[in-house]
């Protein structure tokens, strides 16, 4: 019999309709998890259900993850449908390539709310449930190599994205130390460039040129496939990572080692 690593575990995954979140939902389902999947795009979530292992063990909550009402709906759905919450994957996020001199106050709020406030709201919502459980729980946040370096892209600054991803490292450390004694592990994954919809033609008219440039600067000579990042999230969420909390797993093809 093949051992499934998330048998009987209930996981909430935000931003599950695309890229890393989608790959994570599929890997978690293959490993026996029951899932509550969120995204802005409900049609794409329904399409995912058609591809996923055991769709009968999945619930879908579409909505903006930066709203308190979405966090509440995710929690209520998990509890009503599956009776508990073992794992929260705070994955939803947006990229931002724009210099500080061009970024409006409204745009600033939008990126902070999507990438950071969403994590505050979801952690605040699920931690009280995890505290009630004998086995605690696990939170995995999506940071980025951009949280470590003052990266530029295409000659423009990604300062705002970088800020949110650095703050996620500190959110992770702070919640991990606060709740370690309660059996709640809080970790994060910091991917390097991964081929998903996050890198769009909106900001990168020469997409092929972009991916070639990425490959040229990676020590491993290529960008990541979303499933390679999903496997990192799976490891941290599983009991195999039982002694890991407060830290970030960098999966960047060696980029930060340069
Ligand atoms: P993606 O664009 O393929 O997927 C992100 C998903 O989040 C989309 O389905 C989108 O609809 C959803 N989403 C966006 N805003 C939302 C909101 N307000 N409410 C609900 N859902 C929302 O991107 P991805 O690359 O898979 O990104 C996933 C995470 O990984 C993000 O946090 C991103 O910052 C991080 N990351 C990505 C890369 C990369 O190179 N792709 C690198 C490092 C970190």
TrEMBL record:
The keyword Oxidoreductase applies. GO terms for molecular function: oxidoreductase activity, acting on the CH-OH group of donors, NAD or NADP as acceptor. Keywords: Oxidoreductase. One of its GO terms (biological process) is bile acid metabolic process. Gene3D superfamilies: NAD(P)-binding Rossmann-like Domain. Pfam families: adh_short_C2. PANTHER family: 3-OXOACYL-[ACYL-CARRIER-PROTEIN] REDUCTASE FABG, SHORT-CHAIN DEHYDROGENASES/REDUCTASES FAMILY MEMBER. Belongs to the short-chain dehydrogenases/reductases (SDR) family. This is NAD(P)-dependent dehydrogenase (Short-subunit alcohol dehydrogenase family). It comes from Bacillus benzoevorans. The lineage of its organism: Bacteria, Bacillati, Bacillota, Bacilli, Bacillales.
């Amino acid at each position: 019999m093949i051992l499934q690593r998330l048998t009987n575990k209930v996981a909430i995954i935000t931003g599950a309709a695309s890229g890393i979140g989608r790959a994570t939902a599929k890997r978690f389902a293959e490993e026996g998890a029951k899932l509550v999947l969120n995204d802005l795009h409900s049609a794409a979530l329904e399409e995912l259900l058609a591809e996923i292992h055991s769709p009968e063990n999945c619930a879908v909550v579409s909505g903006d993850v930066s709203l308190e009402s979405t966090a509440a709906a995710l929690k209520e759905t998990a509890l009503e449908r599956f009776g508990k919450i073992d794992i929260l994957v705070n994955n939803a996020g947006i990229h931002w390539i724009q210099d500080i001199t061009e970024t409006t106050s409204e745009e600033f709020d939008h990126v902070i709310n999507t990438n950071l406030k969403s994590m505050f709201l979801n952690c605040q919502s699920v931690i009280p449930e995890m505290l009630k459980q004998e086995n605690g729980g696990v939170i995995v946040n999506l940071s980025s190599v951009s949280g470590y370096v003052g990266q530029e892209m295409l000659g423009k600054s990604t300062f705002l994205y970088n800020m949110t991803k650095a703050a996620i490292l500190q959110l992770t450390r702070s919640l991990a130390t606060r709740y370690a004694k309660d059996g709640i592990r809080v970790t994060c994954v910091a991917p390097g460039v991964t081929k998903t919809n996050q890198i769009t033609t909106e900001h990168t008219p020469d997409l092929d040129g972009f991916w070639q440039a990425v490959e040229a600067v990676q020590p491993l000579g290529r960008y990541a496939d979303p499933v390679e990042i999903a496997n990192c999230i799976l490891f941290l969420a599983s009991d195999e990572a039982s002694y890991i909390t407060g830290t970030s797993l960098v999966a960047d093809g060696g980029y930060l080692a340069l």
